[in-house]
Design a protein that fits this description.
With 423 residues, this protein is α/β, with parallel strands linked by helices. It folds into 2 domains: 27-283, Rossmann fold (3-Layer(aba) Sandwich), CATH 3.40.50.300; 302-411, 2-Layer Sandwich (Nucleotidyltransferase, domain 5), CATH 3.30.420.130. Helix content is 31%, strand content 19%. The chain is built from 13 helices and 16 strands. The protein has helices spanning 25-34, 52-65, 82-85, 129-141, 161-170, 184-200, 230-238, 250-258, 262-265, 269-283, 360-367, 380-388, 402-411; strands at 37-44, 70-74, 103-104, 109-113, 148-154, 175-180, 204-209, 214-215, 222-223, 242-245, 311-319, 322-323, 332-339, 344-351, 372-374, 392-394. The strands form 3 sheets. The chain has an 8-stranded mixed sheet with strand order 3-4-2-5-1-6-7-10, with helices on both faces. Strands 11, 12, 13, 14, 15 and 16 form a 6-stranded mixed sheet that branches. It is globular, with a radius of gyration of 23 Å. The termini are far apart. Residues 1-20 and 286-299 have low confidence and may be disordered.
């Protein structure tokens, strides 16, 4: 964009406040877009080959399975791997004159990568810094992300143009998640990433140690193939949070090669538990997981659940007339119709679902016009199936009569505890 205006404008084209020269409309649009993102997570590492893109993809998927609206932005110009990790390699974004739509992976997760725009997977991208910086800004400014709870940015290794531009574009409230492997060679390079974030003024949310030991699928014994605990020691040394350690898992490798996120199909085991532990501090960020004395999840906006008549239907899985703490063991569903104008319960009906089979309940619930399920415990895979059907899920609800649970939700006093099926 040319900078024709008064002589006091900077050469960068950012505009000025002098009379006769307004702000750069591109910068104004960028600020507006970034303002619609509640939380920005930039995943980076000073070392290549540590599994950073795999970690970024699974963080984004895990947040989306928790019911959050998530964008995943791949800014690795020379090796964009996110499309393959999510089986999106053959997808193309819809492009209009002044914007483009991100590629949907699910109802809650949208993705953008330069890999979508390349004519062929074999094409090399030979760009210098200004082109990379322009691409990153364009992927934030011109992509129709909408309102997001999280934008997860996957950066290439190092502390060069891409991570610097990503952090500067997102703003100083963007938080870094730094990925390392346990061995000293990787830790030395990753240490520089922590220093890099401090120099540019962005907080480090924490360090993830990937490939942390190998758990034998046959005997269950752990073997430390690399030196163990390097990431945790680095976190203590640098005074940052240690988010968790992800073990080496053949299923994680297979998931990456075959193009499906690990957490989409694996709810149990050390790897799934590690990934779910890692995202808990992210869910606790302001605007996502609201911290109270007992701890509670963000309640969906009531208006998002209602139909055109201002009526919403909430489902509560029940056993012996009370909310069932284990979702798969419920005997009936209480279908509670509520008037959101005066926040009152209009009707409660009890329906017996068909015999439980994987994937059956989400379809059955969605067909009955349910917008929200209040549950005691529900696994990540089941939650993802509900969100794919457009049904929100809240877990950790108390084992009380269904109308009492719904009434507390309507009053805003519902206290949600831990997920009794958190795997």
């Amino acid at each position: 964009m040319s900078n024709s205006g008064c002589g006091s404008c900077s050469s960068s084209g950012e505009g000025c406040s002098s009379s006769g020269c307004g702000a750069d409309p591109r910068e104004a649009k960028l600020i507006q877009q970034v303002g619609r993102i509640k939380n920005k997570i930039v995943v980076l590492s000073g070392k290549g080959g540590v599994g950073k893109s795999t970690v970024a993809a699974n963080i984004a998927v895990a947040l989306s399975l928790a019911g959050k609206k998530v964008g995943l932005l791949d800014v690795d110009v020379h090796g964009p791997s996110i499309p393959r990790l999510l089986s999106l390699s053959d997808k193309k974004p819809h492009i209009e004159t002044d914007c483009m739509e991100p590629v949907p992976w699910s109802q809650n997760l949208s993705v953008m990568s330069l890999g979508f725009l390349l004519p062929s997977a074999e094409d090399a991208v030979i760009w210098r810094g200004p082109m990379k910086i322009g691409m990153i800004k364009q992927f934030v400014t011109d992509v129709a992300w909408g309102d997001l709870d999280f934008l997860v940015v996957d950066c290439p290794p190092g502390t060069g143009d891409e991570p610097l531009s990503a952090l500067q574009t997102m703003g100083q409230d963007a938080q870094a998640v730094i990925v390392t492997t346990p061995q000293g060679l990787a830790v030395d390079d990753v240490r520089r990433s922590v220093t890099f974030c401090r120099q540019v003024g962005n907080p480090v949310l924490g360090i993830v140690e990937n490939m942390s030991g190998f758990v034998c699928p046959d005997c269950g014994k752990r073997h430390d193939i690399f030196n163990a605990g390097g990431g945790e020691r680095l976190a203590k040394e640098m005074g940052v949070t240690f988010l968790g350690a992800i073990p080496m898992d053949p299923e994680m490798v297979r998931a990456a090669d075959e193009g499906y996120p690990f957490l989409k199909v694996h709810e149990h085991g050390p790897t799934a538990e590690a990934l779910l532990t890692i995202i808990k501090p992210m869910l606790a960020l302001s605007g996502s997981l609201q911290e109270t004395k007992g701890g509670s999840q963000e309640l969906p906006e009531l208006k998002d659940l209602s139909n055109s008549d201002g009526v919403a239907r909430i489902a509560v899985p029940c056993a012996q007339g009370r909310l069932c703490m284990h979702f798969g063991h419920c005997e009936q569903f209480a279908l509670v119709d509520v008037d959101l104008k005066d926040r009152s319960i209009k009707n409660v009906t009890m329906e017996t679902p068909p015999p439980h089979e994987p994937g059956l309940y989400p379809t059955w619930i969605a067909e009955r016009g349910v917008g929200l399920v209040l549950a005691g415990g529900m696994g990540a895979r089941a939650q993802s199936m509900f969100t794919d059907k457009g049904v929100r899920v809240l877990v950790g609800a108390p084992a009380e009569e269904p109308d009492a649970v719904v009434r507390k939700y309507l009053e805003g006093s519902l206290q949600l505890g831990s997920n009794t099926c958190d795997h």
